[in-house]
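Re: How this chain folds, sequence and tokenised backbone to follow

Filed under: protein folding, tokenised backbone structure, sequence and structure records.

Contents: The amino acid chain and a row of whole-number tokens, matched residue for residue.

Body of memo: The sequence and its backbone structure tokens, given next.
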Amino acid sequence: MKTTAIFPGSFDPFTIGHDDIAQRALAIADRLVIAVGVNEHKHYTQTTEERVETIATLYADNPRVEVMAYSDLTIELARRVGAQFVVKGVRSVKDFEYEREQADINRLVSGLETIILFAKPELACISSTMVRELSHFGQDTTPFLPKRKQE
């Protein structure tokens, strides 16, 4: 049986921490759908199209990765793409508690399971929020972003 996992997030921006989780998820799933969430209550620094395009470019050479935007419940996206589980990365106890609650609700409502991958210690301090903050103050954020393929 071919397995499909979804890796949902806002990815504003997609960091080397996100990339690490995606790469590790590919070791346990045949297909990975990186799902760029659109939440009308959030303010993003990049458009949905920019976020999707940036991530799609990173994985353009990997036919096992698909990138798409979604604005409904994660469980609905999982049904549409035939995903057997959700993959989430966790950096801290705070992240863990939030993701545990989300996983519990998803499982109760739909039976969808969540697999938690813990951040590598050297990447645990990297978050989209931290990257946006550094960028806001004119700092170089390239060390925290995956290297884009040459076009």
Observations:
- The longest strand covers residues 31-37.
- Strands lie at 4-9, 31-37, 65-70, 85-90, 113-118.
